[in-house]
Amino acid sequence: MTCRLLSLSSEAMWPELLRLLENRDNPDQTVETDVRAMLDAVRKGGDSAVLEYVRRFDCPDMRPPLRVPAEDLEQAARDIPAESLDCIKQAADNIRAFHEAQKDRSWFLTRDDGTILGQKIEAVDRAGLYVPGGRGGNTPLISSLLMTAIPAQAAGVREIAVVTPPRADGTLNPHILAAAHLLGVHEIYRMGGAWAISALAYG
To answer: 0.85 cut: is pTM over it?
Structure first.
């Protein structure tokens, strides 16, 4: 749906707003069929199916590997403006402080009869993160990376994989790469959409 500015007049706004929302209860069911087909194709075809979708929807000339080399992350951190890197670092520090304080903890109680009660908090071994690339890769959602990777790290997740859609030339926005480098996240893949989610799910 194309975004539209609504009149500030309440009399004019509500009928227009209701008109725009009237089809929310009747979504296009064909989307689910298409997505299920993509998930199944990736489950069966693996990397070759993912590459086919990347070429079809994002970068016609994409060549493997889809994983971004570690040196590209380091280079991006050197290439973006220093003030941009400082802003990312400040945001990351603030987010990390919040989630470190939010962490739950394991605890156990031993009753007089020897019964042990409690809870054990343990992070999953591996997490897959989806980071939108923004319009044409030029408005990357760096916040999506910070606000998913940092909580995972604070929780103790040992391995983090990130997928994000490539630009038309097959590259990723350097600000995303620089942010990943700053966080110590080095497993980044140039893929987006349902096929990327499928790749995370099926490996």
So the answer is: no
